[in-house]
Predict the 3D structure of the following.
Amino acid sequence: MSSETKLGPLTVSRLGFGTLSLSPLQSFHEVDQGAELLCYAWHKGITFWDTAQIYANYPLLRTAIKKLPRLPVVATKTYAYSARGAEAAVDEARRQLDMDVLDIMLLHEQEALTLPGHRPALDWLAGARERGLIRAVGVSTHSVACVLAAAELDEIDVIHPLYNKWGLGICDGSARDMAAAIARARRRGKGIYAMKVLGGGAMYRRAGEAIRHVLQQPWLDSMVIGMSTAAEVDFNLAVLEGRTPPPGLARRVRGRSRRLHVAEWCQGCGQCLPACSQGALQLAGDKVTVQAERCVLCGYCCRACPHVCLKII
Ligand code: SF4
Ligand code: SF4
């Protein structure tokens, strides 16, 4: 059972469900199967769900919500930079999730330099919080500098930073740099829930070590992990609770590895390159290639290819 904790003004489970793994960005399309897994995790105490506008999985989440006796806490994210864009994102989430009040709305994948450009959206979200449409406002980021910048903004309740033991995916520093920035934000009163604690899936084989490391961080309120099987739910909960997962379960979870696949019909047009903030894509001749050590398997490039060449498999 995942214990509960404070996250800004909310109470959430210490382990949250990262639903990118249940989205078309990671080649997942089975709404009923995904909803069943969310319900399975909810009944085991994972009652905090993380999604985003671009995950395009609100209908899946709503299907699960309809089967539950109580609402989960749902965090979502938007790339909106204008007031009008923020309003549209909140309307879409409330309508598609069938929730009167959104728990958390984050500005998605921010950097210190992009935050000023999103000020109109942030102001609108802060106003929506005052009007009771949202409970908490925040940012998600892969950047140390952004965590430090967000820590100083009164409008922000919650920060969702990328953090893992190896620093995989942090775009401007090491794991130590990120931990120091997050600790500062925590001291400034921001709620913290970490993402990509398994490096976006790259460290599945060392999942226990990865989760235990993040649990030891004094600034941690909660963390979300992408899961796509009941075995992963059970394994992660066992580690969270300090139990040793049974060997069979550990083998099933460690046996699963994923990668970004480039289809042979890639035309080398380069349109996917700007979608990758990790710099993991480059053109080589007439094809795009992936630097696996930089790729955090976010799937954001997949929707940028007009020829549907990119898939997480
Ligand atoms: S993966 Fe798609 S967008 Fe990227 S270079 Fe190939 S064809 Fe173009
Ligand atoms: S290559 Fe694609 S899946 Fe990998 S980090 Fe970049 S955007 Fe994400």
Remarks:
- The chain has a mean pLDDT of 93.
- The radius of gyration is 18 Å.
